[in-house]
Amino acid sequence: KSIKDILNSQLALIKPSNQEIGEISNKTKKIINDINKKIKSTRIAAEVFIGGSFAKDTLIKKNKYDVDIYVRFDNKYLDKDISKLLKKLMMIILF
């Protein structure tokens, strides 16, 4: 076996399947869309985006997956306490 074959076989052991990636992606898109709609309704200038291993395509195969979700606020909030804004958003998103 070549080194490339060995590496590919090992990668197949640790990388989630295309089906798993597709399921995670579909669920994540739905959640992000729902959150962005709720944010839009508050008139707070912010957006949600995905980070971490899922965003970087470095996800490792496991029984349960997590996806890192971040909120990016507009620059007009630079002098504001964004923790309070985030708390307000979280209360609307979760309840």
Describe this structure in words.
- With 95 residues, this protein is of the alpha+beta class.
- It is built from four helices and two strands; from the N terminus they run H-H-E-H-E-H.
- The protein has helices at residues 3-14, 18-42, 52-56, 82-94; strands at residues 46-51, 68-73.
- The longest helix is centred in the first third of the chain and has 25 residues, at 18-42.
- The radius of gyration is 18 Å and the shape is elongated.
Poorly predicted runs: none
Strand order within the widest beta sheet: 1-2
Q: Percent helix among the residues?
A: 55-70%
- The shape is elongated
How many distinct helices?
Answer: 4
Q: Kindly provide the radius of gyration, computed on alpha-carbon positions and rounded to a whole number of angstroms.
A: 18 Å
Give the SSE order as H and E letters: HHEHEH
Structural category is alpha+beta
Give a concise summary.
The protein is of the alpha+beta class.
Q: Top keywords for this entry?
A:
58% helix; alpha+beta; 4 helices; 2 strands; 95 residues; single chain; two-stranded antiparallel sheet
Task: Summarize the topology.
Blueprint: H1 3-14, H2 18-42, E1 46-51, H3 52-56, E2 68-73, H4 82-94
Antiparallel strand pairs: 1-2
